[in-house]
């Protein structure tokens, strides 16, 4: 017991244990602070987005009401960018639908474990007639075997 205490004390002096606990606490607090800072940044960004909501609605209505010829060049360019993004989003959604349909077809074509069960499993569950068993046993009369049959 004393030998174990000496080995532990030599390998882990009390000061290093205290320092490692302090370091672990500091690391935890730093990580927690970082996570809190990230959460605060996300909350601030969401608040700014909510503040811009009336402007966004106004611009959206203006884009819907007016033709491209009536827009300023900057607004027309912004409208083109939005339409391109909408097209890319629709294309990505279509690709995802196609991929999901192909995946479903593949899953249907791969046999499941139930499909792979042997067909013998069902007849084994049927109760056999006792008379049939006796007739079968009579056909297979045991014969004495000699050394030569082995």
Instruction: Give the overall pLDDT as a whole number.
Output: 76
Indicate the structural class. mainly alpha
* Shape, principal axes of CA atoms: elongated
List low-pLDDT spans: none
Largest sheet: none
Beta-strand content estimate: under 5%
Helix percentage? over 70%
| Total beta-strand segments | 0
Helix and strand sequence: HHHHHH
State the distance separating the first and last CA atoms.
67 Å
Our Rg estimate from Cα atoms comes to: 39 Å
The helix tally amounts to: 6
Oligomeric form: single chain
Mind explaining what this structure looks like?
- There is one protein chain.
- The chain has 6 helices and no strands.
- It has 150 residues and is mostly helical.
- The model has no long low-confidence stretch (mean pLDDT 76).
List keywords for this structure.
single chain; 150 residues; mainly alpha; 6 helices; 75% helix; elongated
List the helices and strands and how they pair.
Blueprint: H1 2-11, H2 14-51, H3 53-65, H4 73-109, H5 121-124, H6 130-139
Q: Can you describe this structure in just a few lines?
A:
The chain has 6 helices and no strands.
